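ok so for the tutorial part 2 we go from a plain amino acid sequence to predicted structure tokens. step 1 is just haveing the sequence, like this:
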Amino acid sequence: MANRRKSNRAKEKDTTWQERVIQIRRVSKVVKGGKKLSFRAIVVVGNERGQVGVGVGKASDVIGAVRKGVADGKKQLIDVPLTKSNSIPHPSNGTAVGAKVMMRPAAPGTGVIAGGAVRTVLELAGVRNILAKQLGSNNPLNNARAAINALDSLRTFSEVAEERGIPVENLYA
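step 2 — the prediction. this is what the tokens look like for a chain of 173 residues:
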């Protein structure tokens, strides 16, 4: 029994999840006795191999909020299809509330051309060559969610071929 527990812990440490805090904000709730202060942390979690998630955590201390944000981010994980050049297969747009994000694949050597929260999401997803633009809002949470929405709508060539019921070679014909 003890050996099995140890091996599970070893597996968890092998999967190299990286987490980056996008924003920590002090928020307050008005209660009967006055204002109750707490912290909200927006965290992006990814393994740089095609999996990424955005989480939000609230707690009375910063460390607790970040821990909750990481746990929430791991629940929200999505798989991102990457090409051989570590880009995305086709252009994509994503929206979340008032934020819009536009993404286009880029040639090898371009790097991640994106700003703010979108850049963090793309780097932790493992995308190395991409052009992205935030439109409409500069709210980090909504922009991160819009980036996740854009990445979630991506489809590989094989998925499109399967949908149409034709072999991948005939896609370009």
